[in-house]
Amino acid sequence: MLHVANLEVVYHSVVRVLRGVSLNVEEGQIVALLGPNGAGKTTTLRAITGLLPIHQGRATKGTIKLKGKELLRQSPDVIVRQGLAQVMEGRRIFTELTVEENLTAGAYSRRGKTWREDLGQIYDQFPVLAERRQQQAGYLSGGEQQMLAISRAWISRPKLLILDEPSLGLAPQIIAQVADMIRTIQKTGVSILLVEQNAAMAFKLADYGYIMENGKIVLDGPTDELQKDRDIQEFYLGGEGDHRRNYRDIKRYRRRRRWLS
Ligand SMILES: Nc1ncnc2c1ncn2[C@@H]1O[C@H](COP(=O)(O)OP(=O)(O)OP(=O)(O)O)[C@@H](O)[C@H]1O
Ligand SMILES: [Mg+2]
Questions:
Q1: Taking the domains of the chain in order of start, what are their residue ranges?
Q2: Which residue has a Cα nearest atom 25 of ligand 1?
Q3: DSSP 3-state of 80
Q4: Atom number of ligand 1 nearest to Cα 212
């Protein structure tokens, strides 16, 4: 479905933030991209969605293919038409519009009338949105806004849905609801690339995971295997603290360990 290879990105022509990133999302999969603050997760998503230029960023190397079609250096609207939808950090909903108007806006790019059925399906699946359909979206809770943002992206019927930290700032109970929603969407046949700092949530949802540190993928694998990795437990799942904590990331820690042995 999505194939990213050897991607390098610089900001302002000087700061090299991604240093050869490769990752794949297979059809129907949820793939998680995890990593600490500043690792380059959002930058990777901006490269995929064509939003780098807005941020003075540029891909200097690599390829990004969606179903075999090159996305790199295409404009965001062309990319959206290839079947990609995204919910960026901080869930950008239209706060002045009602819930239903937000969803209608999400369906805008679709031809035909079937989106009304999808609207019904959203209301059936996610009753919180149905109850508030005429309410101004700005008055929804954080979790409800996140669900609205995800639903709005889903109603455009993407092949690939990209989510940047959907759990950010939400209480654990609400995170579980958002996770359920993501799983429900996967079941409609959508592939999902999920960026998260909440590794526990991401591991529960995703089929495959990539760990990014300092602009590089340092580990990847099926999530049930990654979860068993002691370093991942320590760094990302909050294992019992030992000396590893003194290292900022897995890569540094492993380099140091090799050096010591
Ligand atoms: N527009 C920009 N201009 C210059 N540097 C930038 C720009 N946007 C991001 N960066 C830098 O690129 C690096 C990667 O940032 P990015 O936002 O991709 O990380 P992230 O993994 O999404 O982090 P977070 O978890 O905090 O969201 C950081 O060092 C950041 O300061
Ligand atoms: Mg980010």
A1: 2-28+38-83+198-260
A2: 37
A3: helix
A4: 21
Structure tokens at 196: 């998260």
- Cα distances from 89 to residues 45, 46, 162, 167, in angstroms, run 11, 11, 11, 10
Query: Which tens digits make up the pLDDT trace of 41-53?
Result: 999 999 999 999 9
Q: pTM (2 decimals)?
A: 0.91
Residues with CB under 5 A from ligand 2 (ion): 41-42
Ligand 1 and 247: CB distance under 6 A: no
Q: Residue with structure tokens 């904590």?
A: 245
Q: Which residue's C-alpha comes closest to atom 9 of ligand 1?
A: 43
Which ranges of 1-90 does DSSP label H, i.e. alpha helix? 41-49, 76-81
pLDDT digits (tens, 9 = 90+) for 15-71: 899 999 999 999 999 999 999 889 999 999 999 999 999 999 999 999 999 999 999
pLDDT at 240 > cutoff 60: no
- The CA distances from residue 254 to 9, 40, 162, 194, 219, in Å, are 25, 20, 30, 26, 11
Both tokens of residue 30?
A: 């949820």
Report DSSP state, residue 146: H
Q: Tell which one of 37, 43, 51 to mutate to probe ligand 1, the residue whose CB is within 8 A of the most ligand atoms.
A: 43
| Domain with residues 2-28+38-83+198-260, CATH architecture | 3-Layer(aba) Sandwich (3.40)
What is the pLDDT at residue 239? 58
